[in-house]
Design a protein that fits this description.
This protein is α/β, with parallel strands linked by helices and 685 residues long. Helices cover 24% and strands 32% of the residues. The protein is built from 16 helices and 39 strands. Bound molecules: ligand LLP.
């Protein structure tokens, strides 16, 4: 049962008019019903309630993050087949322990990714894969739990493309080899066999193949017991069929009772039952809504040419699959026989053939039962952006995947413009997200930050206009991690905005970082003052595990040392030295940075007071080491020198990379940092 029903002449998704959704989000679009999905989940769960079981939803059927989250919240585990699906389920909040990693071609990178996340089990499909997982787990100091997927050589009587349990299919390990394979696993130090799995195909409409496959699994489990190999679970895969047209699939109750009675009769000892359903949960939870662009009469046929095609739903083209197609608004007019086809340049591009429908050009139709293997098998063929996905829950709708744009399609092939900036010894690459649609991934940041093989930079800055002169401003270190604030970067951003004529020059620039709003004032063609916020001396802000004092004394690097501590958005310890050139930046700086009194580490500044308005500074930055310049470090040093009466505002701070002027009028006032910025070059990557 699903929640796509007519009320009067109009089709509804739960309590919302389908035509309204199409109007709001455009066509083609997938519309999902949350209540249908939840109902299917509860039906599967209830059918197996009397036996310890785990339902690992087969993500390949539909990997939309919102749908995965609904299932994760219901307690689902997940059956994944790639690193991409693993990333999806993790983003949706899956419990890693409830993840089963299936598939014949797991790569080294995927296995590593799964082991570091700590997934529940690998369903293994060949000896070379078993050895690969063992080697990787061993190198990572981990034990990988595995279940062998067996090939029971059973005919599931389904479409040959989705039949997987026959001896000539690429899937699983020959049932005659299975015992030897478990013995091999026992010899391998980084593997532990915990279960046995099978999956014989999809859209299966008979119960006998399921019972035979499980029976085959249980015979092998029994034989393993003779060799003292004891497992905890059997995994029967997915495969239960649904009704697309006139099929009568077994009910969930019949399916469960067949599997459970086989298990009870043949299991040599108690075993948990795991399932990997995809279609049965998802198929009937969605419709695909499309508009009729043209009605085209040919010699002996009428074609309804839709704005959706095989790129949106490939099942008819690939498997000759039948999906019911209905009008979104029932019209009191004569039905015509039409082939519903898409705009793609292939004769296989059809969604339904010889259907009787009362339709006109411009009308909407709905293709039913497309939740499983619908959107997930979509493509960009003919350079068609993928369509929108909308979720309905009772009377509410939510866009759960925006329609792709043409720009999305081009973005992977286009070179990306970037601009390289410099501000006092720090160099930055700036991405203007209003101009570049793509934000670099942390892997890409690492790659491009490299000074020999990339562009080379200390930090990546991104900006995006919020409104007027206000911009979102984000800062990423060369390792891809995001940081709270960077005053030197703020000047670089300000210069870029001026050079590109992107702001009203009479007004201050406001940059919204992940934790505060920074104001930047322009005082010369390349010169700016940046509001760096108020200094916070409280140990909690730094954080520093010592009671509040002006000077702290600890032993670091085997020597007693005194320092002052302040947070300027990030933590700083400041030490006074007599001669800046001989300051023990590499030794004491590092020891203090990593000292247990700073649970999150601290930047360490060594300062030499030169006169009332000048000091020299070298900084050891946490995670980086000694740098040419540190803007917040300059603020921290000047603030401490002013607080302690050694200097007066403004203080010129002489850093290895150049000079900054720090203005601070005392407690409760923000610190202003004045300095230059330069544009180095513009390029594309
Ligand atoms: N577990 C494994 C290891 C699988 O390979 C599959 C599906 C499932 C579970 C979930 O099977 P389900 O419960 O959804 O039948 N694209 C085809 C279906 C391919 C099925 C691939 N494997 C279609 O549109 O009919």
């Amino acid at each position: 049962m699903d929640y796509f029903l007519y009320k009067g002449d109009e089709l509804y998704a739960e309590e919302v008019l389908v035509s309204k959704i199409a109007e709001q989000y455009g066509t083609p679009c997938y519309i999902y019903s949350q209540q249908t999905l939840e109902r299917h989940w509860h039906a599967v769960d209830a059918a197996f309630a009397q036996h310890p079981h785990r339902i690992c939803y087969a993500v390949k059927a539909n990997g939309n993050l919102t749908l995965l989250k609904i299932l994760a919240d219901l307690g689902a585990g997940f059956d994944i087949v790639s690193g991409g699906e693993l990333a999806r389920v993790m983003a949706a909040g899956a419990d890693p322990q409830k993840i089963v990693f299936s598939g014949v071609g797991k790569t080294t990178a995927e296995i590593r990714q799964a082991l570091s996340i700590g997934i529940g089990v690998f369903n293994v499909e060949s000896l070379p894969e078993i050895h690969r997982i063992n080697d990787i787990a061993e190198s990572m100091g981990k034990i990988a739990a595995v279940a062998v997927r067996i090939n029971p050589d059973i005919n599931a009587h389904t479409h040959p493309y989705i039949s997987t349990g026959l001896a000539h299919n690429k899937f699983g390990i020959d049932k005659n080899e299975v015992i030897a394979v478990y013995k091999t696993i026992r010899q391998l130090p980084a593997l532990k066999a915990v279960g046995m799995a099978c999956h014989i195909g999809s859209q299966i409409l008979e119960l006998t193949p399921f019972a035979e496959a499980l029976s085959c699994v249980l015979q092998l489990v029994t034989a393993l017991k003779e060799h003292n190999i004891i497992l905890q679970h059997v995994d029967v895969g997915g495969g239960l069929g649904v009704c697309y047209d006139t099929e009568i699939p077994p009910s969930l109750v019949e399916y469960a009772s067949t599997l459970l009675s086989t298990l009870h009769k043949q299991a040599p000892y108690p075993l948990d039952l795991w399932l990997e359903p995809g279609r049965v949960l998802m198929a009937n939870a969605a419709i695909l809504v499309a508009k009729i662009e043209y009605l085209k009469e040919s010699a002996n046929k009428t074609f309804a040419i839709l704005d959706a095609g095989m790129t949106d739903l490939v099942r008819p083209a690939l498997y000759d699959a039948h999906h019911k197609i209905i009008a979104v608004k029932k019209l009191a007019q004569k039905e015509i026989t039409v082939d519903l086809v898409g705009p793609v340049c292939e004769s296989s591009d059809f969604l339904g053939k010889s259907r009787l429908l009362a339709i006109n050009t411009g009308d909407l139709i709905a293709v039913r039962s497309v939740g499983a293997y619908g959107f997930s098998m979509g493509s960009h063929y003919n350079a068609r952006p993928r369509c929108a996905e909308v979720l309905v829950h009772k009377d509410e709708t939510q866009l759960i995947r925006r329609r792709e744009t043409i720009a999305d399609l081009l973005s992977h092939e286009q070179k990306q413009p970037f601009i390289k900036m410099q501000a006092l010894g720090n160099d930055f690459v700036l991405l203007d997200l209003d101009e570049n649609p793509e934000l670099w991934s942390s892997d890409k940041i690492k790659q491009f930050s490299h000074r020999q093989t990339g562009i080379g930079f200390d930090q990546l800055l991104t900006i995006q206009r919020k409104e007027g002169n206000q911009f979102y401003y984000k800062i990423y270190n060369a390792d891809g991690g995001e940081v709270e604030q960077c005053g030197n970067g703020a000047r670089a951003v300000a210069l870029y905005l001026i050079l590109e004529n992107k702001i009203e020059c009479s007004k201050d620039i406001q940059l919204l970082t992940c934790n505060r709003l920074m104001t930047v004032k322009t005082i010369g063609p390349h010169r700016f003052v940046v509001d760096m916020g108020k200094p916070d001396f409280s140990p909690a802000a730094i954080p520093l595990q010592m009671p509040l004092q002006d000077q702290y004394e600890i032993v670091a690097d085997d020597e007693a040392c005194n320092f002052s501590a302040v947070s300027m958005g990030n933590p700083h310890a400041v030490l006074r030295v007599e001669a800046i050139d001989n300051a023990p930046v590499q030794t004491l700086g590092k020891a203090l940075c990593l000292h247990p009194c700073f649970p999150k580490q601290s930047n360490v500044g060594f300062m030499q007071i030169i006169d009332k308005h000048r000091l020299a500074l070298r900084v050891y930055e946490r995670g980086v080491g000694e740098t040419l310049a540190c803007g917040s470090g300059a603020c921290a040093a000047a603030v401490i020198a002013i607080r302690d009466g050694d200097c007066q505002s403004p203080v010129t701070v002489q850093l290895t990379g150049g000079e900054l002027i720090i203005h601070w009028q005392g407690k409760n006032e923000p610190v202003w940092m004045e300095g230059d910025a330069q544009c180095v070059y513009e390029g594309t990557v």
